[in-house]
Amino acid sequence: MNKFKLFQLLMAAVLALGVQVSALAHTHLEMTSPKGGETVSSPSVMMLTFGGEVRLVRVEVKGSAGPVDIGFTPVAAAQARFHMPMPFLAAGEYVVTWTAIGDDGHSVSNEFAFTVDPSAPAAVMDHGESHSHGDSGAAHSHDDHSH
Length: 147
Known about the structure:
- By secondary structure, this protein is mainly beta.
- It has one domain: Sandwich (Immunoglobulin-like).
- 15% of the residues lie in helices and 41% in strands.
- The chain has one helix and eight strands, in the order H-E-E-E-E-E-E-E-E.
- Strands 1, 2, 3, 4, 5, 6, 7 and 8 form an eight-stranded mixed sheet that branches.
- Strand 3 and strand 4 form a beta hairpin.
- The longest helix is centred in the first third of the chain and has 22 residues, at 3-24.
- It is globular, with a radius of gyration of 20 Å.
């Protein structure tokens, strides 16, 4: 096999792999407020910022006393940034579990945790270009849906 044919074959394989990787790329959670692992006073608002527009279909908050009613309802219109008013949270650790559906029809789920301490500073909502990931190493799953 000559070098040109080998090069063509190698390039075709690289392009095919690139197409498969981009097809598997899902919009991810880029930033949260409060941030995963952060200790804050009771946040009045929770913010989730994604890398692209998604439909947010589930957000649950659980503390040591059980689920916290945040009044979440699934969002029909796709957007990248979500602000949710929060009730007063007692001191302790809270886990936020979310599910979003990207424009490719695949759902992505993850969770992050933060701690409430009344003596801690308030959560800071960074609306800039910071890409602080809110998942803090939590489990990440993709639920496939047939097309």
